[in-house]
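User: Predict structure, ligand flavin-adenine dinucleotide.
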Amino acid sequence: MFGIVEGQTVNRVLKKLGLDQEVTFERYDPKGFDHMRMEGYSLDIPSDPEELIQRLSALFPEHSDRFRRFVNEVEKTGEGLKRLSPPVKPIELLKHAGEAVCAVQYLNSTLQDVFDKFQLPQAAQTLIALQWADFLLPPNQLSFYAWVILFRGYQAGAFYPTQHFESVINSLVKVIESNGGKVLLNHEVTNFKVTDSTVTGVEAMNLLTHQTDEFTGETVICNIDPKKAAKMIGLSKFSKKVRQKLDYEYSPSNYMVYCVVKDLDMRDYGFGNWNLFHSGHEDLNESFAQMYDRHDFSNPSFAITTPTLLTDASRDCPEDCQIVEFLTVANYGYFQKLLEGDRKAYNKKKQEIFDSILDVVEKHYVPNFREHMVFHVTGSPTTNERFCWCPNGNSYGSSLTPRNMGLGRLNHETSLNHFYFCNASSGYPGFAPTFWTGTLLYQRLSGDVLLGV
Ligand SMILES: Cc1cc2nc3c(=O)[nH]c(=O)nc-3n(C[C@H](O)[C@H](O)[C@H](O)COP(=O)(O)OP(=O)(O)OC[C@H]3O[C@@H](n4cnc5c(N)ncnc54)[C@H](O)[C@@H]3O)c2cc1C
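Assistant: Predicted complex:
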């Protein structure tokens, strides 16, 4: 995650809540927070853009100028986007007009468009874009804006919570409860109470007792996927403009594995406080199509993360064990059909993908990984939908394409009275962007300025 450094969004919110001393973070290795690995090539992404140019130039000496121009353009676009993001500060925008103009020209661009513009060699494109699993989109579909925001965000500082993610959530819940609020788990919103164009509350069912209760409020903030919520309310109740913005396609779903290995120190095999991304293919667009469109995982691209190496804090994990996670893309429609039609085939496909990933791991990274694996659990797109209640098992809300990242992007406005969206699809996905989305709405509703005007 990013946005943690002093003065950035997450830090400001934690300070406001009095949690900045309690909720702390560990930085990924700034010399290489993402380790990109592909047959014949390896590139560790550093925080410093100049160092990135040097490393790329060392791999592809004849293209040094192109890398410099590309990286400079990424920097300029990133600075422009900062000034163009709400809340817009006109004086800042004027001071950085050049950067803003640079950013605007890429409104409809994919990352691939920009790779092509700067004529980067194919292998370099793959190395630069190998964190595709952070978006679940390949370069030819991914919004250049989305890529720039995340890439530069991580360059400025990639972090992991010292006491792991769960403790961050527990701390936030403690603040809510100690201020008289309540967090009701196991409650499903089954209906919204709407009078004319005003939302006054919801009906929610306690999933343990099956009792339905009504909850009312002066303001109703909806964290459920906006399209799903709007359908529950009735799309016709929303203005034409909001209906258009709600017409987004979902981001692709994913395939996850959580493993525990015993008596194996992943640090001995090149793992540490960074993420590792593997590609078996030199063209990520083709690799993505193979997995997502053709469900062929024989030569997979995937991410590996080792949370127990990101912080020294102990976890419910024995001393002699480490946690290893794998992530790649998977097609929701395909898995849903398998699950509905043939449970055995569904299980077989899940296992097939896992085996394929493990074969790569044992061949390229950790021989005998399987021998040390004492626990694993796999999650398919339908698992994702069941656990997270995310429509189509989507990973990041609306898909991070130029169309969805453009001017028609949904925000908190719903066109109904006293009713606001607050979700990845009405803001941005990820830990820090989720803080940003919520804080911006808080600021607008309360007038208490946290992010500046
Ligand atoms: C596999 C995976 C790994 C990720 N890893 C990272 C990471 O390492 N770092 C990072 O920054 N981001 C990561 N993300 C992205 C991040 O998790 C999301 O962007 C973020 O959770 C979005 O927050 P949200 O509040 O918009 O939506 P959600 O977190 O999806 O919250 C929506 C909530 O609404 C609830 N809901 C839905 N319907 C109802 C209903 N009818 N009644 C009541 N409640 C309902 C759901 O249960 C859910 O809790 C990851 C995402 C995935 C899928």
